[in-house]
Amino acid sequence: MKAAVIRAFGDPDQIQLEEVATPVPGPGEVLVKVLAVGVNRLDHYVRLGQIAPVLPFPHILGSDAVGEVAALGAGASRFAVGERVIAMPGYPTDPAQWDTRPVTAAASYAIPGIHMPGTYAQYIVVPEHWLLRDTTGLPAEQMAALPVSLLIAIRAVQVVGEVKAGDRVLVHAGASSTGMMSIQVARALGARVVTTVQNAASAELALRLGAELAIDTGTQDFVEPVRAWSGGQGVDVAIDNLGGDVLSRTLEAVKPMGIVVAMGFMAGTDVRFDIRRFFFAQQQLRGTLVGDIEDFAAWLDAIRQGRVRAQIDSVLPLSQAAEAHRRIAANEARGSIVLQPWAS
């Protein structure tokens, strides 16, 4: 089969399309013919060596995939050949830990494209336990852009942030993949949303997705506009995928007893703030990773109804994976980039 692999860390040109052995499903596993692959910023960091500094090369990148069942391993019976399925972008490799929740707390939790061969390939093997039947009827390209970003957003907004109808929510980087998903999840839950962006095009996109106000942080600080939008009190919940100094300022935009959900570090990994203001305001700072397979299943109706949808920047053949990474690295993508492993 064909796969996009790297043989060393480095720039996007390290990604090459090669012929590799097609995997064989073992007991309880499914061979999936990959129809579409979502490209995530995580893939960019893996390629640079910033996530897993040691990898067995050649290595196949990628965590998101949608496809159809091509073959069943011994004992696999949940799916039939030809069914459309969504592969979970992470799961415990030890079956004894499959019931751990959140799934990321399992000691054997592993992510395709990091801890095992990834999804930039024509075929992948996945335990049937970690496949979800795709009942949406949407194009594979639409669905492939969802798993990582949507599972992050569901857990950050609904589970960890406890967002409910009527809440005021701040979502940072509203035109990023996780930002766009977080806006839509919050709106679907009945919350009101304010977001930060870096330019007018991003503001237009965020507003189209349901944000009431988009603040261009290239021209102004966000704290006072957020407080004014929230009636002077601050927001109930902030979804912070940036970290660094942004998270420090975010605490000032959140009301007493409010929640800040930290789930990224694009603005830096070091955060400093006055602990006195934090505990006198009785705020909560919570960390989060991705959601569970049940979370994705629960949102399939919302996806089918269009209340949550992927924003697609472009669809490229797998042979252009390097170009996809160049666009991601340069922040040129307005939405998700999707790769097609079977396109010529």
From TrEMBL:
SMART domains: PKS_ER. Keywords: NADP, Oxidoreductase. The keyword Oxidoreductase applies. Gene3D superfamilies: Medium-chain alcohol dehydrogenases, catalytic domain. InterPro entries: ADH-like_C, ADH-like_N, ER, GroES-like_sf, NAD(P)-bd_dom_sf. Residues 10-339 form the Enoyl reductase (ER) domain. One of its GO terms (molecular function) is NADPH binding. This is NADPH:quinone reductase-like Zn-dependent oxidoreductase. It comes from Variovorax boronicumulans.
